[in-house]
Predict the structure.
Amino acid sequence: MIIKVAMNGLGSVNTNLLSIIKLKKYELRRDYDIEFKIVCISDSSGVAINENGFDAVEICLRKEDGEKAQNFIGYKPDMSMEEALAAIECDLLFEGSPVDHKTGGAALQITRNALMGGISVVLANKGPVVCAQRELHKLAAENNAQIKYSATVCGGLPVLNIGERDMIAADIHKIRGVFNGTSNFIFAAMIRGQKFADALKVAQEVGAAEADPSLDIDGWDTAFKLLIIANSVLKADISLDNIEIEGISAITPEMLRTEYEAGNTIKLVATAENGVYTVKPTVLAREGFLGSCDGWEMGVEIHSDIYGISYHKLYEKEPIPTAASMMRDAVNIFS
């Protein structure tokens, strides 16, 4: 089965996805009878179309050399992504453009248009899900399409898959997790003696923190993930207004060292329990499951009536697992 694909955004996630698609081409054919054909690409320069299919490796190599969609044969200078999706035969949109969590940005309208045209969507971009999760599912159902976004929550950690697919008939009464590696990075630097501002600067320099670090340090990134989990797994139907959010800027090196000497640690913890949703710095036992989530690790614990308490952890320093999650979502749609 040939899946005709459009890609919106050619940043690190989607280019890593292209590399994985090329690398795993044989396994995808053998195990799932799937072959992805990239017929449309889009970045900040515009849209390029090749209905015979772009070469995935060529796209990656040319992006590494600083080229953009406007440098490819098939560039359409006056065409938007929405217009491109209406003009071509396309089965699937991979959405990996920059996040706009306030309005969903252009990605939200592109996602809407794709679904209304019967094109399934796989997102790594949290913006459309945070802003319009219920609406997008409704559009997908009305137009015989599907939408998946497991990559928006903890990258390669299959939190949504576990909660939605695997815990059949469960009463999940508590979910708790450490979802933000930047806060871990900053806390570790502060324990070593760095001031908060200096630790944040280093986190930005190594690419751990966002260009707008408030998303990490004020707890918003963690809250976005908790929102998506609550609405997808717990069917909570909440908004960000329902989540109590406290960031990490009030945490001092002295607080961290005091807890460390007592065998504890401080983590930015997201919790959903009994209809209450919080994101806040929390003192944890250092040898406990969430307390042990250090550096580039993320973890979640899920408490249910019939499956007990399950613990899941991922080490993800680079975007490869996130990209792999997008491939996984696509395969689950079409297999």
